[in-house]
């Protein structure tokens, strides 16, 4: 890239500023307090869905004590930008490290999510010396909002699925002047990052995932069908199979609804409590972690963490535009091996949807450079366990740093 073309690329990137009027926050609180509640569930557990007691505790705190401005201030303290890629505005946070030879990384959130999921890891990754790491482990961090989520544009035509997003992320990193970089993702971010690995752009040194796509096709299909675990599976493989089968049978009702009929979900665009309950019902282990927060037992997440993520979706009115991502990708496979041939680092958190066995991980990622099982943490690992997560990225990508090249351009700080 010549200096002229690099400058032209940089000029396509605009500082992004946002502000939500107090009237919108007052209207949010009004809607919460005027919720029309159903009767409680007829069981004593969560088998019928998000429980009434949990939802009412959430709503009471949201309407009376929660302060969105704290989250807004944390977001505004970071350099926010927007750029048009393939006809759509893409919002992203770009925080450059003060350390030389920092490794550029693009980190992608999932559903029900936003860049709020990654706020806790920005400091540890960009300034490792202040968080128990060394300068040689520093990253330049790019955190985009998926199209249809948060501050990114809402696609007005079909076609913005994970494959197209994966290609757009490479365009973004090139536009920032990064000639070599790595990528990370969980949930939808894991699918997008896997597909970046499939495309294998020459600039992409490797990827890290905390929800690896590792299931052989026949195993994935068998789990979906409800068939018993094949007798040939090892103990680790059998556990992963049974956990995946549970997800398919009882854990992703939202995935089928959004995958088939996302536009029908007007209720979550119109009711804050409806949105909150829908977001809480992601998977059994995550729901258990979140529900206990509203019972006064936080571990990893706080009430504010949870409401920050829900509130940004409410204020940007992106519940339906975010849901359409499932429609774009429905039936194409979330958890299956996709044919990634570049270097891959994998972190296995115990409360993830399934614990990825090393055997299937090595088969899915023939250039596996890191595999580690963590002592705690679940599906939203960067959000729940930022220290462990940051340490995993440092370790997982360490062997790729010798291939690093300096960027062609430097993006000006927002402000």
Structural key phrases:
9 strands; 44% helix; alpha/beta; 415 residues; 18 helices; 12% strand
Map the helices and strands.
Elements: H1 3-11, E1 13-15, H2 22-33, H3 52-64, H4 68-76, E2 80-85, E3 88-95, E4 103-108, H5 119-126, E5 139-144, H6 162-175, E6 181-185, H7 188-199, E7 204-209, H8 217-225, H9 235-251, H10 253-260, H11 266-270, H12 272-280, H13 284-293, H14 303-316, H15 319-329, E8 344-348, H16 358-364, E9 368-373, H17 381-384, H18 386-397
Parallel strand pairs: 4-5, 4-6, 6-7, 7-8, 8-9
Antiparallel strand pairs: 1-2, 2-3, 3-5
Proportion of helical residues? 40-55%
- Biggest pleated-sheet summary: 9 strands, mixed
Mean pLDDT: 94
Cα Rg: 21 Å
- Spatial strand arrangement across the major sheet: 1-2-3-5-4-6-7-8-9
Category from helices, strands and their pairing:
alpha/beta
Distance between the termini: 27 Å
Find the count of extended strands (DSSP E, 2+ residues): 9
Low-confidence stretches: 409-415
Give the overall form: globular
The H-and-E topology, N to C, reads as HEHHHEEEHEHEHEHHHHHHHHEHEHH
Strand content: 5-15%
Helix run count: 18
Provide an overview of this structure.
The structure is a single chain. The chain is an alpha/beta fold. It is built from 18 helices and 9 strands. The protein has helices at 3-11, 22-33, 52-64, 68-76, 119-126, 162-175, 188-199, 217-225, 235-251, 253-260, 266-270, 272-280, 284-293, 303-316, 319-329, 358-364, 381-384, 386-397; strands at 13-15, 80-85, 88-95, 103-108, 139-144, 181-185, 204-209, 344-348, 368-373. The protein has a 9-stranded mixed β-sheet with strand order 1-2-3-5-4-6-7-8-9, with helices on both faces. The protein is globular and about 60 Å long. The model is unreliable at 409-415 (pLDDT under 50).
């Amino acid at each position: 890239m010549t200096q002229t073309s690099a400058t032209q690329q940089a000029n396509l990137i605009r500082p992004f500023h946002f502000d939500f009027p107090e009237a919108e926050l007052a209207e949010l609180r009004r809607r919460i307090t005027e919720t029309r509640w159903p009767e409680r569930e007829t069981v004593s557990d969560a088998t019928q869905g998000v429980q009434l007691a949990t939802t009412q505790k959430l709503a009471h705190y949201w309407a009376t004590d929660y302060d969105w401005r704290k989250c807004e201030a944390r977001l505004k303290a970071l350099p926010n930008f927007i750029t048009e890629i393939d006809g759509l505005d893409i919002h992203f946070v770009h925080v450059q490290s003060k350390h030389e030879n920092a490794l550029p990384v693009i980190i992608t959130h999932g559903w029900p999510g936003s860049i709020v999921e990654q706020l806790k890891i920005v400091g540890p990754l960009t300034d490792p010396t202040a968080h128990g790491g060394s300068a040689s482990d520093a990253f330049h961090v790019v955190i985009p909002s998926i199209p249809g989520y948060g501050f990114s544009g809402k696609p007005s035509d079909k076609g913005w699925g994970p494959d197209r997003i994966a290609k757009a992320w490479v365009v973004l990193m090139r536009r920032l002047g990064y000639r070599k970089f790595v990528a990370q993702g969980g949930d939808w971010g894991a699918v997008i990052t896997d597909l970046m690995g499939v495309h294998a752009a020459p600039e992409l040194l490797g990827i890290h995932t905390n929800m690896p796509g590792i299931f052989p096709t026949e195993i994935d299909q068998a789990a979906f069908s409800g068939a018993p675990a094949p007798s040939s599976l090892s103990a680790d493989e059998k556990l992963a199979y049974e956990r995946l089968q549970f997800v398919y049978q009882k854990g992703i009702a939202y995935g089928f609804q959004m995958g088939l009929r996302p536009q029908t979900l007007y209720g979550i665009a119109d009711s804050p409590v409806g949105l909150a309950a829908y977001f809480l019902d992601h998977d059994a282990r995550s729901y258990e972690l979140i529900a206990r927060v509203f019972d006064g037992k936080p571990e990893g997440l706080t009430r504010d963490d949870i409401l920050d993520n829900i509130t940004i979706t409410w204020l940007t009115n992106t519940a339906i535009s975010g849901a359409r991502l499932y429609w774009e990708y429905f039936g194409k496979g979330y958890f299956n091996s996709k044919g990634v041939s570049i270097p891959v680092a994998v972190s296995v958190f115990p409360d993830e949807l399934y614990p990825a066995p090393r055997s299937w991980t090595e088969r899915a990622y023939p250039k596996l450079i890191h595999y580690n099982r963590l002592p705690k943490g679940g599906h939203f690992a960067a959000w729940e366990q930022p220290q462990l997560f940051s340490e995993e990225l440092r370790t997982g990508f360490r062997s790729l740093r010798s291939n690093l090249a300096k960027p062609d351009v430097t993006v000006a700080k927002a402000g």
